[in-house]
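chain below, 277 aa
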Amino acid sequence: MTNEIQIKEMVKQKYGEIALQDRNTASCSCCGSGSCSTEVYNIMSEDYSQLEGYNPDADLGLGCGLPTQFAKIKRGDVVIDLGSGAGNDCFISRAETGETGKVIGIDFTPAMIEKARLNAEKRGFNNVEFRQGDIDHMPVNDNVADVIVSNCVLNLVPNKPAVFKEIYRVLKVGGHFSISDIVLTGELPPQLQLAAEMYAGCVAGASQKNDYLAFIEQAGFQNITIQKENPILLPDDILANYLSTEEIAVLRANPPIIYSITVYAEKQGCNCETGCC
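prediction:
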């Protein structure tokens, strides 16, 4: 891949295009599920439709987990969703935090922000706000959030340690995050590592799993827990765009190296609520 600025612009362009598509088209990105393969498959996204607050207009099929299901959101919490897209996880979070809470979605793609705001206005949600900005430099003050969620987004950011430092900054003491993301447990073939579509599709930008967990620890988080983990198998007809038949066979002969994980961690420390201010 190229430098950090070029990567961000490529991702912004790709997801700006997705924002203007319907769900069936958008989900043909490798971060989603759909019929862009000749096989019937579900690459990464999971079924939100049974969760309270779900609205199909806000679901572009681009996730790789259900972080809100594991996020321990309570009534009245302030929740921030990183890479909020059309608002899907924000609206699920609002159902958990209720009218007394607040949800802030952050996305750096203008078309996504516009789509999310329209979805919120249609439903009269006055306590759901969408802000345009980078998640490695959030437009949020210190110590604001009780809970942070994110779904298949951090893998798109070149500087992942900076994102976790920002998450630590904006969380209140005693706050926590639940993030679904893509990680690796081995080396991707060079053709996949260098493919722009594989980066926008949440694969080529993924970190090694051990490195990813180390970034979280180095940012100061404690009680780091993997809440869910699933192997991801890319269909042959997608791999065939980048690999030969022999190279696909070698990849298939080895254990999976692409995984979706949902990871939880806490910002611990002292405040007046814990009795040590």
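The chain has one domain: 4-232+256-267. Residues 4-232+256-267 form a domain with the Rossmann fold fold (CATH 3.40.50.150).
thats it, cya
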